[in-house]
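As a warm-up, study this chain.
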Amino acid sequence: MGATDSKAKPVDVAVENVGGIDTTDVSFSAGVTILTGRNATNRTSLLQAIMAGLGSDNVSLKGDADEGRVELTVGDETYARTLTRQNGTVVTSGDPYLEEAEIADLFVFLLESNEARRAVERTENLRELIMRPVDTAAIESEIDQLQAERDDIEERLDDLQSLRTTLPELEERRQDLEAEIEDKREELADKKAQIDDADQDVGTTRDQKAELEDALESFREARSDLEDVRYNLDSERESIGALESEIEEVETELAELPEEVSDDVSEVEDHIDRLRDQRQTLDSTVNELQKVIQFNEEMLEGTSSDVVAALRGEDDAEELTERLVDDQVVCWTCGSEVDQSDVETTLDRIRDLRQSKLSERQDLQSEIDDLKTEKATYQEQQRQRSQLEDRRRRAESELSQRRERVEGLEGDRNRLEDRIDDLEGEVNDLQDETQSDLLDLHREANELEFEISRRQDDLDDVSEEIERIESELDRRGDLQDEREELQDRIEDLRTRIDRIETEAVEQFNEHMESVLEMLGYENLERIWIERKQERVKEGRRRVEKSVFDLHVVRSTEDGTTYEDSIDHLSESEREVTGLIFALAGYLTHDVYETCPFLLLDSIEAIDSDRIARLVDYVSEYAEYVVVALLEEDAQALDDTYQRVTEV
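Now compare it with the structure written out below.
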């Protein structure tokens, strides 16, 4: 829903058990509404209730209640939220005004705990906050995907380059094989001619010649079988050599992996469990601190009925409530009177302690995430070792089988050699000296035919490999074009992110300058954000990231300007700077177009005249401005503004 949808519509808020509120109903209309009164009068609790109705989950439930409820009515539309305490946390449900309240939490609900205001005080990198409303994550995800595609293409191009270097050797090998085959064929033709001549010279009977032909045929078959066995032996030995090399390679890869990482995995898991226990302890501490904070806030606001009843004795509850919100309050631990400011100071220290514990929890979570990555690395090493050991087992098994086949082939070869010797003797018995020469010619012709056949097989293999490589190389141009196209798209997306970030920073700087000029601080000349690239830690790696640094330019009484850091500013100046930054986000991202509300609280660091100018300024954008102020600060604001004095 946008601001224009709610224009001039009245707003009603019905609250039950939120913050320090038992139950209340508050109404206001479009424009500026001032929640005024002394401290501890549930102004912040009412702002939290409005936040809940709008969609925020950053809302506290009354300390003595297990369930709370908010109904926010804008015009004729009512939006209901329910808060339920479950396992020490508050769970929200219902139908809020905003479908998504993340940006409103950041730039609309500007209470003391607002993330944008606090980030400035803690001098954090502001890039994530500034860019959170902009969907750069989708662009960055697309960049990662395109980079993966580009890397795959580059790997294929590298493979093609390697293939290209093998082409000259393959071409030379093909030419050598063709020349060898031609030479062998010529040699075979000569042998066949010699055999024909020898056949004509042999003076034997037809039966003798037939017997001799049979013996020669058997001899040729045996020679052919022997050559097949020898070829298979060579192939098996080549395979054995390849398997031995593969096993050696696997052994090398295994040696590079840790011997046994299961203990490391167990150790990391134990460490993670210990850290999770610490985190759980911190969660309990944070919850207890929140209960203490909430209890004390309720006591300051005079809304804890159980404690009021216990302390009042014969006093009227209403009179005691007045005492609790006076400058002097009754200590609800010892019963003595103490300054309210002392209680609030102590409460601030407890809030700081809770924030410190939250930061400690974030550090623990970061360490847990790192350990999960380490565990995943160990598990990946386990997986690699398992795969390598399986590969080694398969190779060793195949190696054993091939060695057995070699033994069998060697036995076949020996038997064939013996048979050939026997056949050669038989043929020798069947022929005279001329016929013995004929036997030699047949044997030589048989060997030539076998060699031609083997070389022809090799030639076919080489030719197929050349054709395959040339076919792959034909795609090289297409792959290069595809790679360039992907690189252009990556650069375009990076440029788009750069442009978005640059424009966002420029708009932030413009709005911060406008707000600062409107407030008119004499010693704060300028507040501006610098966008730069730095190598930052991301998990276990360091990557190039955009960093947004906040700078402050101050001036002296004589007009000299100099740059200062946030750390050197006073507490009130840091509060002002954080508020200016948060308002700049509200204006830069046009948040008022989707959420017509703006809630302001804890702005006492600004004097009343400047508060008046600030409220006038933001009221030009937000349709509903709800601001919590002390009575003395509220007096400086326009009398026509609506005022809520009782919650």
